[in-house]
Fold each of these.
Amino acid sequence: MKERHKKWLLIGTAALLMTAVLLPVAAGGQGGGGAKVVEIRFGHMWTEGQSEADDRAVAILKQVEADNPGMKLIQEVVPGDEMRNKIRVDVAANNAPDMWQFWAGGVLADYVQKGILLDMSKYLALSKKVKKSDIPQGTWDSCTFDGVVRAYPRNISVGIFAANSEIFKKYGWAYPKTWAEFLPMGKKFDAQGVASSNIGSKGGNPSHFWYGDLVCQYEAGVTATDTIGETLDFTQRPFVKAAEYCDQMRAAGLFPKDVMANGDWNPSIAFYDQGNVAFCYTFAWCFNLMSPSIIEKTEIIPIPRLPDGERDTRTFIQGTTNDAYCIQGKSFDDPAKQAYLVALLDAVAWDIGLMEAQLGTIVSVNNRLMKEVDLEEIEDKMMVKALKYRIANNVSGSPMIWQELPNNKLQFDYQAALDELWAGAITPQECIDKIQKSMNEFK
Amino acid sequence: MHILRKYKWAILVFIGPVFVLYTYFIIASVGATFYYSLTRWDAISKPLFVGFANYAEAFQSEDFAIVMRNTLLGLIFSLLFQVSLGLIFAYLIFRTSRGFRLYRALVFMPVVLSQAAVAMMFTIFFNADIGPINNVLRILGLYVLTRNWLSDKNVVFYTVLTPMIYQYIGLYVVILLAGMQSIPEDIIESAHIDGASSFRVFFNIVIPMQLDIILICIIMITTGLLKAFEHSYIMTWGGPGVRSAFLGVYMYFKAFMHANFGRASTIAIVILIAALVISTFFRWIVRKLNY
């Protein structure tokens, strides 16, 4: 073969190689078949095959896609806290989804500041299924920044403190009402080989909720929590006292021995579910992990009252707006996407919300939607118990420190400090100092 | 030079694309990471140039000191156990006449398991409330040895290190075993004829002839440990606090929990430099031993 031909052959080979590499990349954004299809990317946490609620949610999303032939719904499923990482990386790469499931409160602040989130009044003006008046103003407040609503709230966190009634009956123990009755129980449980509680701490879960519940036993604690984002003062008395009481619980053996191994949501509920744990502290998103036999034995009781606690613990538990849906402002302003995003959030906020509420996996913040739910027909029996207890005792949700903290760093440092406090690695004062140091850095 | 000139088009065609991709994805990425390490950046707003402030803050941070200590201790223990046990197991298998393939497969099995699965398995083993380790110790009457393995600040680091070391011993056994199989059989036979015991063969023939392979293992252990993440994150979230965190976990926290990508890039550069320094140091030692 002549030298010139060889050269052209090589160039041709190189061109083919480059085409093979680049073609799929270039074709990545095109819909199949050449028809004009608008892609809507939705980041959510419903994993097909994981639970009945998840399966039904995904089916509703598929129905939305079928009802809107011009839309191709791209579902980006990321479970739990990993959604925070995904959105941050996506935003950094200028590749954020059009809509995503997130949380209410300070976790939204960075994105609001950078002008990424839609002014939700634009969506509410076009929605065919939900109205602003469906949701109490206090709930909207958790998603409001400088007077503008930036996310659509999804659910309230329904928590319970409960006892395994079988264990208490077996040993003839009474449920503790006060701190003085509560603290000595650690030794009693240990003597019988019973684990005290499932209140571990890994990544601050569920410890930061429990800590918040102790803080909110003080009138000043509620105010301090509500305003922590502005005062940035963690040395206030309720915070210090609650840390000291948590340390007392640790020393009295009222947490799991291994707070890390039995911390975080799923491990803590699995620990309780094995039947040899006296107290359970958990929230609605774990109810479906409880077996029917343990639900049968579980009796909801008030958190024991602190010696200097001022509020009646029968009437409150941690519980504010938990999750929220966000829409990217740029996407909503795109005329090609707007109608589809309205249809999608309508389906998510109403259809999926109603389905989940009826199954008992969430309590929606939408009062009109909750009126359509038949309490007796809720499938999750733990949720039925929790809701009946709430109604009977007129339980309200108390504010959550984590949610009021103004950014991710503070939230993380707060959670990590509680892990250390729970493990006895630091003293209550060191815990307060650590969190305050982080707040001082934020200032 | 003649060959290079003769095949310059072929070189351009076949090396060019790889060179471009490597430069873009590796060299440029390292350069970009270094640039970000000199900035304050939350990944949403524009990076703000702050010079070496991130490095200064990192080296003044108590948490960073704990993480560095964990990483260095982890490295020492990993080198100690993985290389020495790897050599011993590899030699035992090497000298085995029956069941060679079976032993090799068994020892390699943990390597193919997912790190997440192994971490979960060890989390259950070490669970102080319901795990088998404390239960066995209690049954044996060894109450004094029971611990809160994943929560006690004095032992949690070693607990997390255990599956990290365990899982990868098999990899080094297989690498070292491959090296041992390349030793000419007549050398070992003649040593035995001269009356050398297996022990002497191991120390006087096998180890000296394996130095280059050992160096590869050391470099792999070093780089693996410096970027260690899964076991620590899954078992304890690096905690309590950062007491069981390694540089990789700390970098993740800085990037995604603190939204401080500038500081996270600083940690990435520290990892890179540490890997280069430690690898060069061991290369130098091996070269000294070789000559």
Note: The longest strand of chain B covers residues 39-40.
Amino acid sequence: MQSVTQRLANPTRFMELSGRLLPWVSGAAALIIGYGLYLSFFVAPPDYQQGETVRIMFIHVPCAWLAMWGYGLIAISAFGLLVFRHPLADVSAKAAAPLGAAFTFLALVTGSLWGRPTWGTYWVWDARLTSVLILFFLYLGLIALRSSIEDETVASKLTAVLALVGIVMLPIIKFSVEWGNTLHQPSSVLKIGGPTIDPSILTPLLVMALGFTVLFIAMHLKAMRNEILRRRVKALQLAEVERVQAGHLAAAE
Amino acid sequence: MDLGPHAAFIWASYGILVAVLAGLIAWLVLDGRMLERRLADFAARGITRRSAAKPSNPQS
């Protein structure tokens, strides 16, 4: 009896399954985000302190969560590669890196645009903002390290090691708002004792977070499919070169 | 829709989000199409993967 991960370890089987799933996941993401936008702009009231700028929270917080969860996914994939040698683990890690970097970038930019009217400044070098900026550079480092090494096997192992080392950033980001002086508000959704946000604002936030998460899953599936296709193209290019070389050798003899 | 005196910050946030996500989705779709075209080109020239050529062999 094979486990789900063992059955999905076959790239061909993964391509078949993901090909069937992708339209449904993409459609679900579009519907949930559409509903979330409706709630965000037409149902949620202005915040009693922040006014209309609270609507930036509906995109900033999901982006920030996905920035961290994306890195968690890369770290789990890296662990799967180094420990279990799962054939799709490296494909998953490589596919998630640009997506995680994009969501981290969006968290930084939307946070900055939210900070100006709320705090009076676009940026402060406090623990939360600085640690998220470091996470963004870590993503870029993973992408740069992989693309700088031609040997795919060596590149995958080195980036996996860096990804596992970098996971230390996740608790630093999570607890940075509690460890020092910061303009950033403390956790108000994922906290012991439950959320402290009013349901009229919490509901659109959670719907948007769900929609963005499903969108991330859809994009990750598509990026993994592309990576598998890229590796097939590379293998065929090598096979073609070998065939041509064999032909030249045969002609020379 | 009146978003108050800070409407520009709200619209800028959503605008940048849409631009980045649209760019990502377009990159993923176009990259996938380009790779499928290249694989089809190899297949047209008779160069195929062993596993694709022998679907009956579960070990390949």
Note: The first helix of chain A runs from residue 4 to 8.
Amino acid sequence: MTATAQLDLRARPSWRTTKNKLMLGLMGVAVVLVAIPLIAVLSSVVQRGAAIAFKGFPDFFTATIPVVSRRPGPGMGPAILGTLLVTGGATLIAVPLGILGAIYLHEYGISSKFARLVRFMSTVMTGVPSVVMGLFVYLTWTLSFGYSAFGGALALACLMLPVVIGSTEQMLRLVPSQLREAAYALGTTKSRTILTVVLPAALPGIVSGSLLAIARAAGETAPLLFAVGAATAYNPHLFSEANTALSVQIFGNANSSFPAAQERAWAAALTLVLLTFIVTLIARIFTARLALKR
Amino acid sequence: MVTTTNTTTTATSEPARPIPYGSQRIAIDRKAVAQLPDTPVVFDCENVEVYYGAFRAVRGVTLKIQANQITAFIGPSGCGKTTVLRSLNRMHDVIPGARVAGHVRYRGIDLYAPEVSATEVRRRIGMVFQKPNPFPKSIYDNIAFGPRVNGTRNKADLDVIVEKSLRSAALWDEVKDRLKSSALGMSGGQQQRLCIARTVAVEPEVVLMDEPCSALDPIATARIEELMRELKSRFTIVIVTHNMQQAARVSDRTAFFTTELDSKSDRRTGTLVEFDATSKIFSAPSDERTENYITGRFG
């Protein structure tokens, strides 16, 4: 020690630093707790499903579903096609409608009575259980037109719509008003400003929100039981004949007492996870490309 | 480039040189007053009032803005400079509850007449904002945005407009090799010049500038002031500024605004105190409030 006091810039032990460490520790614990179910679900699905799903690849993804469920052996092909049809149809209905609705709410309606009513109803719709939505479609569509992939798409679209509206409106709100003003100051009309400035700026967020809605819808089972039926053969028609979907097959096979069916359920679950993953990945790459171009 | 006919400040070759103020007056070339050309009136504001809901933000603004001159609006915060500026190209239309009373005549036409389209107005009267606000697009697409909106589709034509606009904003040499990269990667000063280039690209008749230099350093500020002097020959410029030296350096005419207690609402409202040649405002203002403000005794 020299005569002059040594300069010490280390943090002094205090309640604040202790609290900081404590909270950091708690956050770490929270991260682990959140990760546990995610990893557990993924690992058990992969463990139990991978062997069946990838045995004699790509048989499982292309072959038809065994009519007699106790027989072992592949096939989820029709269910994959059915899921793509049902979810794709739902996306085509709900995403454009939802984005247009959100544009109305945020850019035109704002706080008018009608806009407030629509916003409120949309929030209420978010809380409607999917079974109820399935029942609704069963009564209004399936009873008159019979089982079809389109009925399922309608039910899923009803579930997706409020989610897409909500997330898109949120994203539009995040677009700085300065950008709108910049466009207006150049003599741009409102509609053109929305199309060329606001929507491109909000696009990544809109895509994320829509993807979340699609992924959630792809796993829905209850409404499809009412509206889609349960086929075992390929049915590429959107509007006619009973179809099937991965979620319906998982439900049916997992309920079965035969080990072969249960194995198929696990493999179908893995397929659904992979499918969602691939769709998400494609959409992400697509938006990243768009962002780069801008 | 300092244009010689309109130099209203002390003949200075360094526009960024700080002129101290306080008890001291900013020295003015008195002869310059007489030299201000009497160009046609572009804006004729008559008793303009702007309301936000029931609140009257500005009252009693009567002034005439002349072509190919730089008119500066100065005054303390909350005095309504920006509010009046935005009323000149109907930017209040996009704010719910905002309303303009009185008359704003642009080349004889009342801008707030029911048959006048705000879009058409803004095509002729462009605006540069306080914070640089480039679109999240490439430099090229930022400039080409306005011409595209106005119907220019031809790639060759757009190329010409982009180069010309970037040149008039003294930005071409800095960005000509990266026209396709994002405008958000530019520095603040470059972004603001890009916004000026974007405004110029639609060939407006008037350019309104709302504190265009407040977020910039002195060097970038000097460049933009130089730009304004150059652009003056092609456009009519109205600039809002907090910086009195800036007003003295670049403007031909200055409007001084201040706040006062509104007898109607008991809230502070902005009003126009004095509008005159910049040299007159900074050397011999006729109103005591102007004198107090420019000498730093208030505000």
Note: Chain A has one domain: 77-293.
Amino acid sequence: MKLKWSGVAVLAICASAAHAQSSVTLYGAIDSGLVYQSTTASSFAPTAHNNGHVFAFKDGSIYASFWGIKGTEDIGGGYKVNFRLQGVFNSGTGKLGLADTTGGTAVFNQQTTIGISGPFGTFDAGRQYTPMIYAMADTDVRAAQYFGSILGAWLGVNQAAGWPGTNTNVPIGALYDSNALVYQSPKFYGSSLALEYAPGGVPGQIQGGTRESAVLRYSNYGLNLSAVYYNAHDTNLAAATPTGLDNNRLYYFGAKYTFHSVSVSASYGIGKNPSNTSQADYELISGGLGYQFTPFFKITSGFYYLKDRNNSANHSSEYAVGAEYSLSKRTIVSAQVGYVANRGTMNQTIVYGQPVAPGVSTTAAMIGLRHSF
Amino acid sequence: MKTMNGLRVALGIAIVVASISAWAQDGASAAASAGTAVTASGGMTTKAVRQANRALRRKVYAALAKHKEIDAGDISVTAKGGAVMLNGTVPDALQINTVVEVAKGVEGVTSVTSKLTVQRPFGQ
């Protein structure tokens, strides 16, 4: 009898565990590191003072620390309802990440989406990663990581265009968009299309605050190709009230090729303010080379060049090299070194969220430990 | 500044040397297996062997393309005889098995060696 009841109990526990697993998943990563940097600044201002070198505890050696909850419900006929809540936290301080308004933070600052997937593709509504950032990560050997990558290069363009670094509402392109509707097509012989539209919600204006983007991707035969078009109105709202002005545009083309253990990547981008190109008109060029020595150990390197097309004195060249070693399936240790030659008012960073002094050369080195759960 | 340049050059050289040695190794083993292929197939020319290897490689990629969840742009497939080597990354550990099974199911594939690793997708 005792045995019987324990059997029932085990069954009951298994059943509830299985049910929980299929409906909601808690996931995330904690990533902490130590960084040395030869120059620093207290802001992204083009005239910021060089505060000298710094040695610091830093969140995010590979990507940010974050956590999230996601779930899926199968509603039959090949259709699913999906949701995702996800936000970053600082592993050094416990603080939350930036929101879309200046100075604000949000618990789920990365993603708050509800959507449907099925034979037609995937549709998600809410704050989410823009399709463009996946396209960039796909075509960068350094995978748009937090240390010396296409992510920092693209943000360098934004810093040059006046982004203060205190909100996620950047002037060129976007990493996250609030209130966005994103459609992702299924793959057709390796090709897929993503379309985004985010209504602005500005009273009296149909264009005010809107964003739209289209991303074409190809992934097969060891080759990733991507083409990005991003356009938005009234972004970088730090100082302005919405006027419906078309002031944010990014074009980006990238490729990555993997053969045996070698990966190479290259990309070209143009970011500008289409209403007033004399305010912002930049070029971005990247190149990457990586080698996977064993399934546990790889070295990746990248070169990132930024150019101000309005003033040739402003340009920036960055080199980054990083080694990543997987201690287990979930834990990675890394060591990375980067060098950036910023000229004029440029201030491309090496480490995400760690401003460098503008117009001078900076070196940075970082070691980190990342555990995913 | 000079030391930094030195460091950069050294790192650059290290990577280049590593890739070259890998290429060289690869070339050597390719030659070796081409040699065996010639004897096995009773006098197939090196060119014909290479063509057959490339054709098999394309067949494996075509089979992977049917699985819409797999990004074969991050995967390197190479073939020598019927032996297929997989390198590169997948976003999820479960996909390693899927890719290996798909490759094994392709006609003409006699063995599959996987060096695939997991790289979580951006933002996850």
Note: The radius of gyration of chain B is 18 Å.
